[in-house]
Specification:
By secondary structure, the chain is of the alpha/beta class. 27% of the residues lie in helices and 24% in strands. The strands form 2 sheets. Strands 1-2-5-4-3 form a 5-stranded mixed beta sheet, covered by helices on one side. A hairpin with a 2-residue loop joins strand 1 and strand 2. It is elongated.
Length: 185
């Protein structure tokens, strides 16, 4: 089944949730309201055998001027191994703090992916079992993949992460120990 056909069937099943269907190079992208995202994901999983969550990411649309797009979106790339068809779902969000339901109950791999999106974009996932930073230090301020995030250039007077100096010093000490033949850092 082609992705455009799957998108058409999704639109029939969820007419209030599907905002638009877009096609690029033969692949459909379904723009959705985020309120019933779990219902849509369960439907795709059960009716189209989309048992594989290829990827999940966040997008900052805040500077784009398209009426169908929310300020942010969560993109789900789904795939059916047995049927060999793919689908992209783009759940629209205006407020990343209000969040979207977690897909972890459907795909355990979403645990890491949602934490990454939370860490770098600041989008919250309601019902996530352990929503905390995963790539950046716990004391990091802000979300660096947002378009409003300041570029941190010391030459422009924007300070680096406060823990950077300490981390650099620990790295120097570990390097010095390794040159002396020490095992411990």
């Amino acid at each position: 089944m082609e992705s455009l056909e799957i998108a058409r069937l999704l639109r029939e099943a969820f007419p209030q949730e599907v905002l638009d269907v877009r096609e690029f190079r033969g692949q459909a992208a379904v723009l959705l309201r985020h309120g019933r995202i779990l219902d849509v994901l369960v439907y795709a999983r059960e009716h189209f055998d989309m048992l594989h969550l290829r990827s999940l990411c966040g997008v900052d649309n805040s500077r784009r001027n398209e009426p169908d797009l929310g300020a942010f979106e969560v993109v789900y790339n789904l795939y059916s191994v047995t049927q060999r068809h793919a689908l992209r779902l783009r759940a629209q969000l205006d407020d990343p703090e209000a969040g979207i339901d977690s897909a972890v109950p459907l795909w355990p791999v979403a645990n890491w992916l949602e934490r990454e999106v939370f860490d770098l974009m600041g989008i919250r996932f309601r019902g996530h079992p352990d929503l905390r930073r995963i790539l950046l230090p716990d004391d990091w301020q802000g979300h660096p993949l947002r378009k409003t995030y300041p570029v941190r250039l010391p030459s422009r007077g924007v300070p680096e992460w406060p823990g950077l100096t300490e981390l650099q010093e620990r790295a120097k000490q570990a390097d010095a120990l390794s040159w002396q033949g020490g095992d411990e850092a």
